[in-house]
Amino acid sequence: MITHIVFLKSHEENQEVKSKIINDLSSKLSLLPKYIEELKSLEVGINISDRDSAYDLSLHTTFENNDDLNTYRFHKEHLQVIQFIKANKLESAVVDYIK
């Protein structure tokens, strides 16, 4: 089993705009299991902490193996989410590990 965790942070200063970006991203990510059967589980969390070091959103997904993770990475629906992330200049940190 492969666990794939991503943290994302917006540097948008307008809190209303930032909140919309993060909520839109959460919605887009939550739809991915409908399109990508290799995704065994997906959980999205929106941060509630006001610490400066906190990220705005976390994504926790699992896959049977590395091939399934790669299928997800290059799937057209996932790539559309990546485009949204890039267009909104979100910072990310990723951890993949075998469980």
Please tell me about this protein's structure.
This protein has a single domain, classed as Alpha-Beta Plaits (2-Layer Sandwich), CATH 3.30.70. The chain has 99 residues and is an alpha+beta fold. It has helices at residues 15-31, 66-74, 76-87, and strands at residues 2-9, 41-46, 57-63, 91-98. The protein has three helices and four strands; from the N terminus they run E-H-E-E-H-H-E. Helices cover 38% and strands 29% of the residues. A four-stranded antiparallel β-sheet has the order 2-3-1-4. The protein is globular and about 40 Å long.
The amount of beta strand, in percent, is 25-35%
The whole-angstrom Rg is 13 Å
- In the CATH classification, which architecture applies? 2-Layer Sandwich
Helix-strand string: EHEEHHE
Quaternary status of these chains?
Answer: single chain
CATH class, anyone? Answer: Alpha Beta
